[in-house]
Amino acid sequence: MSASERVCDLAEEQLLARIFPLLPTTDATLVGPGDDAAVISAPDGRFVVSTDVLVQDRHFIRDWSTGYDVGWRAAVQNLADIAAMGARPTSLVVSLVLPRTEEVHWVLELARGLAEACAPHGAGVVGGDLSSGDAIVVAVTVHGDLEGGAPVLRSGARPGDVVAHAGVLGRSAAGLDLLSGAEETTAYPDLVAAYLRPDPPIGSGARARLAGATAMLDVSDGLLRDGGRIARASGVVLDLDPLGLSSPRDLAALSAAGRALDVDPVRWVLTGGEDHGLLATFPAGADLPPEFRVVGRVLEATAERGPAVTVQGVVPDGDEGWDHFAGRGSRA
Amino acid sequence: MSASERVCDLAEEQLLARIFPLLPTTDATLVGPGDDAAVISAPDGRFVVSTDVLVQDRHFIRDWSTGYDVGWRAAVQNLADIAAMGARPTSLVVSLVLPRTEEVHWVLELARGLAEACAPHGAGVVGGDLSSGDAIVVAVTVHGDLEGGAPVLRSGARPGDVVAHAGVLGRSAAGLDLLSGAEETTAYPDLVAAYLRPDPPIGSGARARLAGATAMLDVSDGLLRDGGRIARASGVVLDLDPLGLSSPRDLAALSAAGRALDVDPVRWVLTGGEDHGLLATFPAGADLPPEFRVVGRVLEATAERGPAVTVQGVVPDGDEGWDHFAGRGSRA
């Protein structure tokens, strides 16, 4: 294979024959790729399913992200949705739209990124579809298993619960701002990597369920916006404590980048999306998995305020996160 | 809602709130849209899954297809993959990429087309994702239930089996050629509709399994090309009888359009894709579901010929069907 080989040089079946061997399989895969459909084991008589799409120039930019990065992110943001239900991922299918002039090498790197993001979590890539198109689109559907437990929904938070978060906050947004700005990015490789290849705590979803989590989601659009989703679904107030939001080490890295870009790092922590950490509520006194940090508590919604996210009792200025059609910073 | 309302006039959550009420739900949906993921019943401890993508200007053209048509086709071509495993569809998730200037009306029509294609088969639309992009992309993932039976693969055809087909052949290709040509299409509304809104026999998949089908797939890329897939996977020859391929009524409609376009209608029947009928093999003497027509028989592959599709013992001139990257008519 030469680096300049293009997908239009191959028939679809030839390209698939190059991709399939790169993809992880699992014991849950009863029939894998190559037939009209795959057959997957669902031992507890249910499966969890979610779908998420990445679009070139919307979710990634070719100059910044390698094929590996795009494959990794496509997998991870889907795996996080399964974790957010308290489930373990089992399998993914991928629809891939590619320009006919795309390099085969780039596509195989994407497959490798997908595979390496999935393999540690025991998830197989069991099927897919290819099409040509003007821009790259990666649409992933992911499935998971609840191991006989109840799914952790957004609607179960109750006054008195603690609010906790596993993963990082604001790092992906800081990395994106660094890449977008004129600033030299080499001083902040961890933040740039957090944007290009987020690494959320996928296994923490099932652990949170086992620890009694009452509500959970993954933070894809920003802590304030996603916290608001739990608040509204549960009819409660999530009151956050800024001191709990980031580890001292995280905050130090964000602060240095914030000074370089003249950005308040707290803004990244509160409104930055795409870290895909898990925001959950637990009954007071629950034995939290160690990767969860307590970041606030659940209060009753009041008649004058209604369900909301507050920071030390105050509704913050803006809850702006990402909205795909209205653009950054609009309010849903 | 005005006809000129655009998706960029709405926040993503507002658009979703318009779409969700249009989508069918089913008893198999334990948790529906609105959380991080859906939870679906899989009563026999397995599920069948397939994914298929439609891309604007590749799989449909805005001037020909309404939103309803696109939603319908996106659903049907996926449902056919589940049927082709001998399963019954239970649920779909949909990733939708839309230009920000797209009319909201068009999107809601797409949802209605999806819904009406799914509802008769008991399949719910249980989740999705929206993104902006320059061209419309509809990526559907569909799930099905095998009711405790074995999946019908492509690899199970045995010499002595009969080859049978349920659905129509060549009508979608004829409709596409009519739309593509200068010819007046109003004389052939059924053929044009067969392209815009194919209506394959989804329920026949499970019936074929119950009748003992040994191999099956849906004809998406043309009878010769898809038949070749069964032949290669099973290591056999599929010998087709042209007299069995179309009903007299079907052939009359194709012949009239063929005369108008100067196309041999047999070419549509043998190489036209996207009708999504079911091509299956059954043991000789099996009691076929009545919608299946016998179209040939399975023979031993010979040393000199190998697995192939033949028509009355002769390898046809070309097996050209659709290839997404190389374009129409290339050989995979």
Notes on the structure:
The structure is a homodimer of 332-residue chains. Chain A has helices at residues 12-19, 67-83, 104-118, 171-180, 189-196, 204-210, 223-234, 248-261, 265-271; strands at 29-31, 38-41, 46-55, 88-98, 124-132, 137-145, 162-166, 215-218, 236-240, 278-282, 292-300, 308-311. With 332 residues, chain A is an alpha+beta fold. The first copy, chain A, has two domains: 7-145, 60s Ribosomal Protein L30, Chain: A; 162-311, Alpha-Beta Complex (Phosphoribosyl-aminoimidazole Synthetase, Chain A, domain 2), CATH 3.90.650. In chain A, the strands form three sheets. In chain A, strands 8-10-7-11-9-12 form a six-stranded mixed β-sheet. The longest helix of chain A has 17 residues, at 67-83. The model of chain A is unreliable at 328-332 (pLDDT under 50). β2 of chain A pairs antiparallel with β3 (46-55) of chain B, so a sheet runs across the interface.
- H/E order of the elements of chain A? HEEEHEHEEEHHHEHEHHEEE
Please name the two chains that share the biggest interface, counting residues whose Cβ lies under 8 Å from a Cβ on the partner chain. A-B, 78 and 77 residues
Write the CATH homologous superfamily of the largest domain in chain A.
PurM-like C-terminal domain
User: What is the CA-based Rg of chain A, rounded?
Assistant: 20 Å
Share of residues in strands of chain A: 15-25%
What is the distance, rounded to the nearest whole angstrom, between the alpha carbons of the first and last residues of chain A?
Answer: 47 Å
Looking at the overall shape, the CATH architecture of the largest domain in chain A is Alpha-Beta Complex
Tertiary shape of chain A: globular
- Output the structural class of chain A: alpha+beta
Number of domains of chain A: 2
Which residue ranges of chain A are poorly predicted, with pLDDT under 50 across at least 5 consecutive positions?
328-332
**Lateral arrangement of strands in the main beta sheet of chain A:** 8-10-7-11-9-12
